[in-house]
Amino acid sequence: xxxxxxxxxxxxxxxxxxxxxxxxxxxxxxxxxxxxxxxxxxxxxxxxxxxxxxxxxxxxxxxxxxxxxxxxxxxxxxxxxxxxxxxxxxxxxxxxxxxxxxxxxxxxxxxxxxxxxxxxxxxxxxxxxxxxxxxxxxxxxxxxxxxxxxxxxxxxxxxxxxxxxxxxxxxxxxxxxxxxxxxxxxxxxxxxxxxxxxxxxxxxxxxxxxxxxxxxxxxxxxxxxxxxxxxxxxxxxxxxxxxxxxxxxxxxxxxxxxxxxxxxxxxxxxxxxxxxxxxxxxxxxxxxxxxxxxxxxxxxxxxxxxxxxxxxxxxxxxxxxxxxxxxxxxxxxxxxxxxxxxxxxxxxxxxxxxxxxxxxxxxxxxxxxxxxxxxxxxxxxxxxxxxxxxxxxxxxxxxxxxxxxxxxxxxxxxxxxxxxxxxxxxxxxxxxxxxxxxxxxxxxxxxxxxxxxxxxxxxxxxxxxxxxxxxxxxx
Length: 475
Known about the structure:
Blueprint: E1 5-9, H1 13-25, E2 29-33, H2 36-46, E3 50-53, H3 60-73, E4 79-83, H4 88-96, E5 101-104, H5 109-121, E6 129-130, E7 133-134, H6 150-162, E8 169-173, H7 179-188, E9 197-201, H8 207-215, E10 216-217, E11 229-230, H9 232-235, E12 240-244, H10 251-263, E13 265-266, E14 275-276, E15 280-285, H11 289-294, H12 300-306, E16 309-313, H13 323-338, E17 344-345, H14 347-355, H15 361-374, E18 380-381, H16 388-397, H17 404-414, H18 419-426, H19 430-439, E19 442-446, E20 452-456, E21 459-462, H20 463-470
Parallel strand pairs: 1-2, 1-3, 3-4, 4-5, 8-15, 8-16, 9-12, 12-15, 17-18
Antiparallel strand pairs: 6-7, 10-11, 13-14, 19-20, 20-21
């Protein structure tokens, strides 16, 4: 299958080299252009899947002219513009010209690579390939690993390297972050993908049943054992076994688990011969295993045996840019399940959800969506559609600015007009920031006394006025 082709305009040699290396490692095919003529020739000859533009003459508007020429040939191709010298006028013009994303210096290769991923996320047929195989985690029947944040993008890339190996994996993270989903993704994208994937909740196994559940038993091994029973490990032979909440397993069970992992063999309860297994081990915990080892509540030798490949999933509050994508995914699932056609959330409702800390992580977000559907919302979910207790928690947590204009002004002022930081603060894209700036006619001016002020329509808003209006929201 043909790889996704990205055409890069080479202006900054160091950045270009870093970016090329990063994109090549992610499975893209890279073509470079040394000048505008060469770039346009490549667009005509190669028909790339995405173009990264720079103005060679250091004239920011030249890049925009090039973009418009490319758009004349292909209205769908994603375009990313890198500008050395920038202005709000240029950013707004770029938006109107159909630029998908826009960066002004300073920027990094990682930022641009993340933008590339976001562009292709909107074009299912243009997903990159790695190791000549499809890497579409979206094909998982149990759900998707939604990732717009750089943290989750890095984890997703690492999973592609981990999955084809047979290494033991330890997944850590708070409850509800998706540890079982990650384990399923590793299994399904490995050579064992069509073999069994067996889950064991170590915290739910009583000591009296542990051995028989894990290793099985022979007929007559104990009263009531009327037939041979295969255990979880044997059922997972040639596939993957997932040991969830491994940190809650008692020390006696840990010793038995260590022997099984080291020797890849088991004895059924009441059995007289060992049974060799070909099974991959993936373990997960929400506990601090290092602390448990120090307190002698977890075996050090088992810890080192499990901690071969480590994947840590960040809590949802550290990757809130993933929330809109997760909401879209859950709404699609629930629409199909409930036979409805809910389109999404109002901006007010989404703003509240983005400010919440989500102690229950992705699981709490999913449960909230289901609770909303049970209330039978209209086509668009408003704040009052949220469960009453949840509404109360949100209102008590923070006093939000009520208008979109106020939120935008607050973010711009608190970040000293740094559009990237303001976008992250509001959980918007940079292009959305520029669109809103144009919509509300906001311009930046410098007062003689070096204080920042903004012109909002016909109303001049000063620093002191903003502080008076929004108080702590500006800090």
